[in-house]
Design a protein that fits this description.
The chain contains seven helices and four strands, in the order E-E-E-H-E-H-H-H-H-H-H. It is rod-shaped. It starts with a strand and ends with a helix.
């Protein structure tokens, strides 16, 4: 039977690899655990699930102190820290999956309407239209000068093209907003993780310095004892 340790918070048996002793938990997180579990004496084994829950509460308290009320994005980042999940995602794929056929078609039309292909081809059509009515069909033009039918077609085209382009721009703004939200979540989580690493490294360095100081004190005491024995 494998060795197990009892978590001092949830009182459940856990594997030694599923937690850590209280001495290696950084002080800020240790204070947060004591705050939410005042019955705990601050010693013994604590599982990662309880550490993650208290870490979530600690991060929420830090964010509330710095930015005030937490938004839905902040809550999502805090939860990802507890679950050790990745918050980054492929925004383009997610956005493309939600597009309908009409939205895809309007994007294609807007993309073509804002290209040199459209300008050149449309200019060629107008040139041929005017040339045909002035030169080729001079005796019986189907749209004589001042080209009223051509003006009507151009007006209808502009009336249809304008809302199509606006719809495409609205979707581009929505896509940019999703990108900005995703960047915000990534940056916020990176900042919190870096802060966590700094606190953890500082805590480990302090513990190491304390141990080195204790070892040095023991060595000094041993040297003093050896000196006293030699003198005696």
């Amino acid at each position: 039977m494998s060795e197990t340790c009892v978590c001092q918070i949830c009182q459940k048996p856990k594997s030694p690899t599923d937690g850590q002793i209280a001495e290696v938990i950084r002080p800020s997180l240790l204070d947060c655990i004591k705050k939410h579990h005042p019955e705990w004496d601050g010693t013994g084994f604590v599982c990662f699930d309880d550490i993650g829950d208290c870490r979530k509460e600690y991060v929420k308290e830090v964010l509330q102190e710095e930015i005030g009320e937490l938004s839905a994005l902040d809550e999502e980042v805090v939860e990802s820290l507890r679950q050790h999940e990745i918050v980054s995602s492929d925004i383009e794929k997610q956005f493309e999956k939600k597009l309908t056929f009409g939205e895809r078609l309007s994007d294609r039309i807007a993309e073509f309407g804002g290209s040199w292909k459209f300008l050149i081809s449309f200019g060629a059509v107008i040139f041929v239209w005017i040339g045909a009515n002035i030169v080729l069909l001079a005796t019986k033009p189907f749209d004589p000068y001042p080209f009223i039918l051509l003006n009507l077609i151009l007006s209808c085209l502009a009336a249809v093209q304008a809302p199509v382009i606006m719809m495409s721009q609205n979707r581009a703004e929505a896509r940019d907003r999703l990108r900005a939200e995703n960047d915000y979540k990534i940056n916020l989580k990176a900042e919190l993780e870096i802060r966590h690493l700094h606190e953890k490294i500082d805590h480990l360095l302090r513990r190491q310095y304390n141990r080195l100081f204790e070892i040095q004190q023991i060595q000094i005491e041993l040297l003093e004892e050896l000196g006293q024995k030699r003198e005696g």
